[in-house]
Amino acid sequence: MLVLEDVNVYYGAIHALKGISLEVNQGEIVTLIGSNGAGKSTSLKTISGLLRPKTGRITFKGADLATIAPQSIVAQGISQVPEGRRVFANMTVIENLELGAYLRKDKAGIKDDMKKVYELFPRLLERKSQLAGTLSGGEQQMLAMGRALMSKPQLLLLDEPSMGLAPILVNQIFSIIKEINAIGTTILLVEQNAHMALSIANRAYVLETGKIVLSGDAKELAASEEVRKAYLGG
Ligand code: ATP
To answer: Whose CA is nearest to atom 25 of ligand 1?
Structure first.
């Protein structure tokens, strides 16, 4: 579905992604793990078109993504939940969700998807008229995910959904990610919480200083000595 081939990304003189190749197949949960500064967020921003590769190819269902505008990438079926949620604080929950559907014209479909988002996140329904800035961190994460789902993506890009959340909320968010996948959305999940990410993913890639150093079946990686030592605290 999504294929990156030998992608190189720079911030000025900083070579942030050094020849990344990876793929995500339809129906999968794939996770990209690695420590701080490894290039995880850079990878997602490059897929969603916010950053451009200097060299390399990115295709989604066979179409070249490297040269089209970010909103066209959304229109093709890819939606990103950014790191740190970035909800619109001065808008209500409903308004934030509606913004997620700004490229769509199918009013009935939008209404239907709003209902589905409220089923996934009942807390958002309870708070639908509340300003997003007054929500808790976990609720804002739910809203950011709900907003991304309102574009009806085929591929959902999640950037560190566990960041700053209490363990109980992390569990809740991860079980919802599994549910979103089960009802038909392919997921590329970036996480520093390797333990949680590997527990729900089918496959995983390990990034270190801009390079993929390991990849494979998530369960096998979670059991491997190398990953346990470096990312799972022994
Ligand atoms: P984190 O979890 O801290 O976000 P990450 O794995 O997502 O880590 P990136 O944010 O992708 O890492 O950063 C990869 C590299 O690129 C790092 O060395 C970082 O310092 C550098 N970098 C990221 N953003 C910029 C920027 N706007 N300008 C210059 N360098 C940057």
So the answer is: 11
